[in-house]
Amino acid sequence: MRRFLPLLLILLVSHPALAQNYDTVQVRTTPLAKGVYMLAGAGGNMGLAVGEDAVFLVDDEFAPLTPKIRAAIAALSSKPVRFVLNTHWHFDHTGGNKDHGDAGALLVAHDNVRKRLSTGQFIEALNRTEPAAPKGALPVVTFNDSVTFHINGDDVIAFHVAPAHTDGDAIVVFKGANVVHMGDVFVSAGFPFVDLSSGGSINGFIAAAERVLPILDANTKVIPGHGPLADKARLKAFHDMLVAMRDRMKKEIAAKHTIEQVLASSITADYDKDWPGGRERFLRILFQELSRK
After folding, report:
1. Does the residue 130 lie in any domain?
2. How many domains does the chain have?
3. For the stretch 17-52, what's the b/e string if a residue is b when 16 or more beta carbons lie within 10 angstroms of its beta carbon?
4. Which of 22, 113, 210, 234 is within CB 3.0–4.6 Å of 168 for a Cys-Cys bond?
5. Following CA atoms 187, 192, 195, 199 in sequence, which dihedral angle do they give, to the nearest 10 degrees?
6. Cβ 168 vs Cβ 113: under 8 Å
7. What is the mean pLDDT of the chain?
8. Are 65 and 43 in contact (CB under 8 A)?
9. CATH code: domain of residue 180
10. For the segment 53-109, what is each residue's pLDDT rounded down to a tens digit?
């Protein structure tokens, strides 16, 4: 049973159907730099910046957690949330959008986040249908390439990367604070989820890491979409693992092995300890993507 616990934990934070008892969830606050924090509850990790200008929130987990998220923010600032930026469209990162929007926050995201939230979506790998979000949950400001917020004495830069986890992924850089929020383009505790049905791609994950790594240093705090707070070294290890797994899977496909043969093999043996959880889903999706003609 112990070997399955990491996978169970990842499933609990990535699929609300498995985490319905929000009453027991605690929103934990981790200070990262002056006025910049990581908040973690039951969905994707959140980023938070507070200061003289505004409260700026990156992602907002699930709607039932909004009161707890607000309480965690209130412990740091008396100001209301002014901006919410979504790193992508998935329900565990945008579930609180309507609550914050109704309270006056400006919702911001990549163009494709609004497009996907505006219409019903089907996440094939989870066999999950998501209805269109209500108008109040839709980003009001969208961007194609990047957008910069000049607030709290810092430049907060959000930029789009090539389709990776989804086709609307955004990386958020708190430049002066030396903090980066990666969204689900980086998970620090297991194999990632490439949502092919939302336009995702393994090559996008690799390209995103290669774009971000040069702007990091040994002191940069890296907020992953899921998992513990990380750093440049952990992101580099994630990148190297993805490159190796992509290349190994290409060889398996070229050898005409089936996915069941791959699953039964030791293809991930040297990574299973450092990246526990999500193995079977990752391999099935990788096989599916790389088998496309």
Report:
1. yes
2. 1
3. eebeebeebebeeeebeebbbbbbbbbbbbbbbbbe
4. 113
5. 80
6. yes
7. 94
8. yes
9. 3.60.15.10
10. 999 999 999 999 999 999 999 999 999 999 999 999 999 999 999 999 999 999 999
pLDDT digits (tens, 9 = 90+) for 153-171: 999 999 999 999 999 999 9
Instruction: Say if 28 falls within a structural domain.
Output: yes
CB neighbourhood size of 109 (10 A): 31
Residue 23 forms part of a structural domain: yes
pLDDT band at 17 (very low <50, low <70, confident <90, very high): very low
Global pTM reads: 0.93
Q: Is residue 250 part of a domain?
A: no
Structure tokens, 280: 């079977």
Instruction: Provide mean pLDDT across the span 121-133.
Output: 96
What's the whole-number mean pLDDT along residues 252-271? Answer: 98
